[in-house]
Structures are given as C-alpha cells and as structure tokens.
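Lecture 7 notes: from sequence to structure.

We start with a single chain of 499 residues. Read the sequence below before looking at the structure.
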Amino acid sequence: MNNPRDAAYWHSRAAQLTPLSQLLIDGRVRPAEGGGTFECLSPIDGRTLAHVAAGESADVDAAVRAARAVFERGSWSQQSPAARKRVLLKFADLIGAHLEELALLETLDVGKPIRDSLAVDVPSTVRCVRWYAEAVDKIYGEVAPTGPDALALITREPMGVVGAIVPWNFPMIMAAWKIAPVLAAGNSLVLKPSEKSPLSALRLGQLALEAGIPEGVFNVVTGFGQTAGKALALHMDVDCIAFTGSTATGKSIMQYAGQSNLKRLSLECGGKSPNIVMADYPDLRRAARAAAGAIFYNQGEMCSAGSRLLVQESIREQMLEEIAVVAREMTPGDPLDPKTRLGALVDEPQTHRVLEYIESGRSDGARLAIGGQRVRQDSGGCFVEPTVFDGVRPSMKIAREEIFGPVLATLSFSDLDEAIRIGNDVIYGLAAAVWTRDLTAAHRAARALRAGVVYVNCYDADDITVPFGGYKQSGLGRDKSLHAFDKYTELKTTWIELA
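Now the structure, written as tokens:
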C-alpha cells in the first residue's frame, strides 16, 4: 500500500471514488423530477467526476414540503435541546470519521490542496457542528423587567424552514456555518450547494441521516442558481434564506424575498479587503508572509482575502521583496500532492475571469511585479500563478472589484489617515487589517475602518466563537458565534397579567 501522505495514495483513492450525485429529499436519494443532470468537472485535470442531478423548481418544492411537514410534526423542532445536541454530536463524529473521503471530495471538486482539505476544511466543519451542538442547551430565555403586575417571558422559537445557498470556495465550511445553527435551533433545512461544488453537500446530507436527524429535516437540492437557487429564494413557504456568495447574487436574493413572502435574509457577500502595513511595524518579514497568505491561500478564492495591500511608501520595496519569496514557494502544483500549497482555480470560467483582471491591471498601467501567467496547462487543469501588482491606483479596476483569485493589488500611502480613506473607498466592508506597533494607531484604525472584522497585527485569525460578516455591500447578518442563532430563531414575548 502507498504511503497515505503521498500523491500516489490520493490519486489511487480518487480513481476508486464514486460520489453521490442525486438529490436528497425527505430522506430519499432520487433523481431530479425532470431527469436533468449536469457534469461535475474537476479543475485539477478537467475530468468528469459525476453527472449530478439538476434540481429545478419542482424539486425545490418537494424539498420544502418535506421540510415543512417534519417541522410541523415536531419530530425535530419539538425535541429538547439536549436531544438535538446528542444527534448533532453524533453527526460531528461521523464527519470526522470520514475525514479522508470528505477531504478528497472537496479537493477533487474545487481544486484546493489536499493538505488544506485535511487540515482545515473537514476539521473546521467538525468543530462548527460540535460547537453549536454544545451551545444549544446553554441558551436561556429572558424575563423582562416589567412591574409587579405582569410577568413577561422572552423565548426563542425555531423559524421553520430555512433555505441555505452556499458557495464553492469553502463548500463544507460555509455549509456548516449555516447547517449547524439552523439544525441546533430546531429548524428544517433545504441546502442548495453551488453547481460548481455539489459533492460534499450530498455526502453531508447522507451522514446527517445516519446520525439520526429525522427524514425531511436535512434536504439537499443540487442545481443551478437561476433555477434551483431562485426557486428556493422565491418559495412562499421558506421562512429564511441564508446565503453566502457574490454581491450581485445577494442583491437578486433580496429582490426575490420582497417579491415572495418577505422572508428573513442573511447575506454574506463579496469583499475587497484592505491590509494596511505601517512603517513602524517591527517585523516586516512576518507582515509580508501574512500578506501573501492573505491573498494566495485557497488560491485567493476567499471573500475576506487581503486583496489590497496598502503599504507605507518607505517600506514598499522591502515588503514586495518578502512577498516575492513567498510567491516563489507557492508555485501551483498537483492538489493531490500533500506538498502542494497552491492548487487549482475552481473552473475554466473563473480562470478566464482572473486572467482578464490581470490583463486589466496591465492595461491600466499597474506594474506586474510577480506572476501573471496561467501554468500547468498540460495537466488540463485551471492553474494561475501567484500574481502581484505594484503602483496600483485606487481608481483601477483591480483595486475596486473582487477578483477571487491569487492577485494582489499593492497601493502606497503616506500616513494612516490616507490609508483609512483608501481602505474605505470601495463598496465592500467585509474585513480589514492594520499592522503597527502604535496602540493608538491600531485603535484609531479599528474604529475608522468600515468592516465587519478588523485584524490587528495578523490576518484571517479565526474562531467559531466570534461573528463573521460585513458592512456595506458585503452583506447583512452574521455567521458563527451565538449571534448566528439570531438569524434562525423567532423571539416571542409571552405577557402574563398578574393583577
């Protein structure tokens, strides 16, 4: 047998893998009602992984009916929090027990390095499900401070049917951020994964059934955004849509909510996050390596990527030199090789989009300092090398629009006030960072930057206990932490007259 840590082992396992490819509705695996399918292609080499059921409005309607019926029966929604906790802990254990299978599905489906799928994506999914399972029986109601003639109770109730529409960059993690609090609160779920990354969602749905989540509580409808996703967002019997994806799609979902039943929305959308490095920060090598990781990790396919590096002019050259060192270490490689740190972009359209932005940077007069080329074309996959632009002006397209690839725009500034102005001068407000040894400057920046998360002397630090979400056109609502329950529960006041 091959060493389980080498590429040969993972290629051998990939050759034997048969992914689930049909819808999961009311506890049953079934084809789309219309019989349609779509090809699920691996960006590693272009091969077909599966022909996946293309769910449409009829399938969404069947999933919602199943979810509503089981919610009304109360077989999950009326279970005690402790009972739901036991099942969700078993669900987390099952995800962990299938670590290699799920990691392989994720890597084959979206092209991320197997080392990241094994070390980050699956373990983070397990931690998320386990954390919400543990949290659900520790949330108390309230008694309002009314006068002695009344008793006012404030309690949380599950909303009902929640539709979750999740993206392709972190398919399992983003799904878990929705699945875990939705189910812990007692709701029923219809999960619509991206058509670019449907495989792990289907397997998670199957494991949920195995863990003891009742049939109909966790449904998975694969298909395209303009069919299945739109039908879910327009459905009159869906109480909430939890969405992560592009700002443009988020705006459409807001319209669908208004056109239908005014369902509650949670939207985590795009970002163009500023990463500000002050000249007084004492370890520029550390800041540079973090800046490189902030844009090159996961091939730059992160809504919170530090895609704008704002550097004080006196240290710009040194920062670029250090980033170049990291870029050379992150040459795109075979995602199934555990040594690979930079994998494939998700598909051909996304690859062309990234290359078009690189050409736009050149045309607008930015200096291409590092990279800029498509590589490994003989593999049949979608690989773009780490790319860094210098001399970027705030008005340039590459400084204003979300690229979602390993492309860094470097801008200069003279003082902190200018850096904050540049940092805030985009439509997004998801994340930001400032590197400085000056405590006052750090606090000033953290207050002034219009972003849901501000990192100080780090980037992309993370824990399930803290909320994640954005300002402005980066969306509304928060994932993670106890605040996520705000999205998936209704607050009820019960007023008891004692006079």
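Residues 465 and 482 are 7 Å apart (CA to CA). Keep this in mind for problem set 3.
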